[in-house]
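From the methods appendix. Each design record in this collection lists the tokenized structure first, followed by the designed amino acid sequence. Records were kept in a plain field format so they could be parsed without special tools. The example shown here is representative of the layout used throughout.

RECORD:
FOLD TOKENS (342 positions):
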């Protein structure tokens, strides 16, 4: 069997570990050959590929990013996209695809399978950890460790200068990174997209923290919104899947807190640092296990499925399930952290 592999959407630590596991097991156990499609769905859409075999995956386990490149290309936004992918696969003698991606890449994979009978298997990835079908996605653990370390470092400088320090982390629709990093880093306020926040209450917590002679650390997810929204935040850029380019709530909050409390406030936006560099052991292991199960699924002809972590087991679920439900931070979990606020 000849299998095409692609990585789509925002990159995340662990993608190379998946690719390595797919190729190593595919070659040694099943006698597969591989085609590495470049830059997500752009690769099969334009027939742009690179060779992918055991030599190409040597040494890539600890490397961040993806050796195949990534993009947010939407195959359904391109003229005749699905037919072009099918044709390019046929020309290259590719029997099936393994698509490693988040909600957009896997949403496209699901439609390509359902509507165009393309043989695709999905592997879920996102640092956001917001895919409902799997308990965890790889990349998340690395991201929260990076954010936690940043919070640890910000505590000491915040205390030295008696400043409010805000850390803006990724998380468009779900506040998993903010919640976990904030809890692990001892944040005094955590703001997530699931729950609109009241700036006045945030300022009360800031005052309470200063009253205990320590400086406050606020962790805010990029998708978090104050009640009533951020004035003048329209006109943002969108990607090929229609997502707004976020970022900015941290700096807006910096101005509001200074204005209301008179306390010096600084915002740090962690941005893509959270997605870069070497994966943690947890992410390497999860990514490797996903890769091993994905290639076995391809060998067994289980097209239209996706690997998922359920408790400690890797299971195959329908690809459509991958994007059916956005996994958000439940209110009950969020309120567990509130005892540490202020
Ligand atoms: O989906 C992963 C993610 O890192 C989000 O947390 C973030 O909103 C988005 O990607 C950023 O996308 P880009 O790298 O295209 O700016």
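DESIGN:
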């Amino acid at each position: 069997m000849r299998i095409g592999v692609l990585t789509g959407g925002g990159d995340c630590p662990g993608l190379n570990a998946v690719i390595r596991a797919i190729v190593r097991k595919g070659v040694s156990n099943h006698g597969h050959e591989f085609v590495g499609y470049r830059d997500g769905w752009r690769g099969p859409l334009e027939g742009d590929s690179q060779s992918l075999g055991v030599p190409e995956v040597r040494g890539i386990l600890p490397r961040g990013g993806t050796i195949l490149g990534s993009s947010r290309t939407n195959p359904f936004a391109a003229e005749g996209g699905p037919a072009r992918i099918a044709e390019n696969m046929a020309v290259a003698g590719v029997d099936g695809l393994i698509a490693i991606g988040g909600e957009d890449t896997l949403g496209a994979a699901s439609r390509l399978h359902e509507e165009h009978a393309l043989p695709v298997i999905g592997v879920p990835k996102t640092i956001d950890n917001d895919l409902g079908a799997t308990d965890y996605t790889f990349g998340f653990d690395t991201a929260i460790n990076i954010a936690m370390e940043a919070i640890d470092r910000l505590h000491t400088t915040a205390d030295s200068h008696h400043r409010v320090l805000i850390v803006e982390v990724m998380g468009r629709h779900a506040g998993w990174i903010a919640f976990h990093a904030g809890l692990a880093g001892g944040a005094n306020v955590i703001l997530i997209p699931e729950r609109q926040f009241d700036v006045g209450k945030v300022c009360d917590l800031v005052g309470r923290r200063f009253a205990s002679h320590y400086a406050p650390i606020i962790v805010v997810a990029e998708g978090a919104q104050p009640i009533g929204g951020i004035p003048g935040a329209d006109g943002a850029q969108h990607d090929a899947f229609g997502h707004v380019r976020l970022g900015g709530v941290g700096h807006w909050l910096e101005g509001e807190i200074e204005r209301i409390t008179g306390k010096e406030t600084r915002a740090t936006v962690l941005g893509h640092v959270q997605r870069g560099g070497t994966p943690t052991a947890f992410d390497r292991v999860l990514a490797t296990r996903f890769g091993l199960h994905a290639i076995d699924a391809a060998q067994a002809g289980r097209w239209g499925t996706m690997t998922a972590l359920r408790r400690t087991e890797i299971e195959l679920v329908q690809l459509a399930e991958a994007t059916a439900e956005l996994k958000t931070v439940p209110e009950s979990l969020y309120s567990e952290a509130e005892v540490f606020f202020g």
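APPENDIX NOTE: The pocket of 6-O-phosphono-beta-D-fructofuranose is lined by residues 10, 102, 126-128, 170-172, 222, 246, 275 (CB under 6 Å).
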